[in-house]
Each structure stands twice: as C-alpha cells, then as structure tokens.
Amino acid sequence: MTTRAFAAIEPPEPPPCIDHLIVLAADLASGVQWCERQLGVTPAAGGEHPLMGTHNRLLNISSPAHPRAYLELIAIQQGATKTIPGGAKRWFDMDDSRLQRQVAQHGPQLIHWVAAVPDMVARCAALAAQGLDRGAIISASRATPEGLLQWQVTLRTDGQRLMDGCLPTLIQWGATHPCANLPASGLQLHRLTLRHPQMAALQAACAALGLLPQVVLEAAPAPELLAQLGTARGPVCLTSRPDMDARRAV
Predict the structure, then answer these.
(1) Domain count across the chain
(2) Count of C-beta atoms within a 10 Å radius of residue 191
(3) How confident is the model over 84-94, as pLDDT tens digits?
C-alpha cells in the first residue's frame, strides 16, 4: 500500500469587510464618559500604539451582517512621542488642528472607518488606478494580555483620511483579530452609510475595494458618516457631523 502526502490547505481569507469604526476623543477619559453616556456601555481595555503615540479602548459591535466589526475609541497619548520615521503625521487626520478643535468643542466624534481586505497591494493598486493614493502599507503592533497584536495598515505621510473620512483606511490582520478577545458589549452594527457630494468617485472606489453592498452610499451636499447601532437602550445613530445629535433617531 502506498501513502501520499497532502499539502496543508490554508483556510481562505475573509472577503473585504467593515473592520472597525474610528471615534476620536480629546483624551480617553472623556471618550469613556461619552461611550457610557451615548451607548450605555463601558469600552473594553485597548492598548498603546508606540508608532503613532496614540492609545485606544475597544467595543465589540459585531453582528450577523458584520461579524468582525468593532468600535475603536482613540486619542493622542499625552506624554508619548510617536516613533514613525520621516516626520509623518498620525493616522486618521489626528494631527489636523481643525479636527482637534471640533472634538474639543463637541466631544468625541465618529471620524472614519477601516476596511479589512485580503490583498492590500492589489486593493491599493485598484485605488491608484482611480487617482486615489491610499498611502504606503506599514506594519504596526501593540501589546495585549493575550500576546502581540500585529497588522498591516495603509498610511499616508500626511495622515489624511481621504474623501472626508468616507474612503476607508485598509487593514490586514496577522494571526489574531481583535474581536477574538473582545467581550460581547450588547451593541451591534446594523448599517454604515456614507454620504458625499462626490458620490460617483466614492462608489467607484468602494466597488474597486469589494465593499459593496456592505456600505450604503448616498449623494449629499455635505460629507457625513452615519453608523446605525443596536443597543440595549434602542437604536443609536453615530454621525461624523459635529453639529448633529449623536443620538438622532435611526
């Protein structure tokens, strides 16, 4: 009887999907208070990003439609010095003075979202073909009680989000995704809507990334991100518009 060796079959990578929402706070303490006030829950512990001089707290918002989604509450870490070389700006426009003033005046704010993609090089090339520079692919990590969390993420040297935050930053995780160790929060992401005056360009970009119909696109005179969440208190809608109520009816 002869025996044959079979090559191990790697599990397929998940398709492009909504990975997480970015809520910017002036500091994590005020961010936690905002979260408890608006969503009725306390975010789980996060960690520090030495590369950027930032730190975070996390909330599991996974749902049947978005099984790997979470919310990242992020702030510049006071006293920390970012180590990213070349004088690059922090991610997500966190060094932008106008955005900092908005958050200081109105409190923590939904500013951006991140999409997980299986082939970052190909997805960045697809955006570049449309004249969109998503930035370089860099490696990042942070320590957790479960071990080192590692990922690759796109980053422009100017730190810009692009299309007023509606065009996602791209991420590809290592062996572990944050949701694997995040406790259930009682929150679920139901829908992410992107509103923008340049709808044709945004639609083409999201299609090139394989993110349709996971996100809802609407033409609007002013840019806005709307995240509809289910909570124990009922539906909550987070908005990127600082002049709008974060608890606007869904």
Answers:
(1) 1
(2) 17
(3) 888 899 999 99
